[in-house]
Amino acid sequence: MPNPRRTACALVLALVVVGSSAACAPARSPIADGTPTTTASATPSASAAPASPGGFDRAAFSIDDPASVWVVVNKLRPLNPISYAPKDLVTVPVAHDNPAVMRRDASAALVAMFAAGAAEGAGAMQVQSSYRSYPVQVQVYNGWVSSLGKTQADKQSARPGYSEHQTGLAVDISPVPLTCSLAACFGTTPQGEWLAANAWRFGYLLRYPADKTAITGYEYEPWHFRFIGVPLATELHTEGVETLEEFFGLPPAPDYLR
Ligand SMILES: [Zn+2]
Predict the structure, then answer these.
(1) What are 67-98's pLDDT values in tens digits?
(2) For 257, which DSSP code?
(3) Centre of ligand 1 from the C-alpha of residue 28, in Å
């Protein structure tokens, strides 16, 4: 007789696919993906993840392993190893302004999300930026440092090893035609509004909400979505929790340690 809990667990596990083959297409775009906030001081605490009312297992996957679909990356949580590169990168078969490359499951979910958005009246969408490798981020960040200095560079670019884009699970989305790109105005486009309401159905999370900059360390980025898988995205949606930091009981990450 099947054990329902075990079946549910197997279902969750089935959503994480480990693949081979690596296609690494660097994206350009020195555009700032998030402006650091200067508010709130991080008070690291060893708080355990709060319990979920419905019995959701918050320890089902690692939040530390960079290859885990639940990995939490922020200004206090760099990827480890810092030069991590995903093993199952694929070219995402969707419209794109820059190369569209993501991990396999994130790619499939994005294809489905774009199709559903169009079918449900949100209009067409394209990938503005997706996977960025460690070497590319080094290049981009160092370019800013040499022209502006470190303090200003931090406002223009994530440091290498600290960008969610390096996980292969994050994507910046723009409307087609390109009426608003990588700016707050995307949040009021039909595409931006539809994504904010529906991305969870496809396992995506609006990672940097407007009212959570002191926790995430990034200003409102209505265009930046992070694949976390359908079970976790659904749980966040159901509980009304907006950030991974809050869900997993992690300290706020408003800025780098130094
Ligand atoms: Zn982004």
Answers:
(1) 999 999 999 999 999 999 999 999 999 999 99
(2) -
(3) 13
